[in-house]
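hiii, so i know i said id send this last week but things got crazy w the move. better late than never?? heres the sequnce for the chain we talked about at the cafe, plus the structure i predicted for it. fair warning i was half asleep when i ran it
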Amino acid sequence: MAKTIMIIDDSASLRQVVSITLTGAGYEVLEACDGRDALAKLTGQKIHLMISDVNMPNMDGISFLKAVRELPAYKFTPIIMLTTEAGEEMKKAGQAAGAKAWVVKPFKPELLLTAVSKLILP
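okay and structure toks below
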């Protein structure tokens, strides 16, 4: 059975690129356009990993991270931040909120897949 990954990004084109990369590697993909949309779609189903942008409308990635960590079903789900933010302060905020990896856009698909394969839940 394929593992499920949720992509949270306000850019439809970026979600599409990441989705193609992941489905090509055999993963199932759920998409959300921001943190609030993602939380609404987390209904207890098994999500093996999440990939989230930082800068989004309605609910940004760091706020989303903190909210997800409050949900018992997703408390330990690995989350990769995929963002244009490369500053140390933002990375520290992400790590403090529970991010497991930080990938800077534009990203190389093989680097993202390497991070996914290392972090994804069994």
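btw The radius of gyration is 13 Å. thought thatd interest u
miss u guys!!
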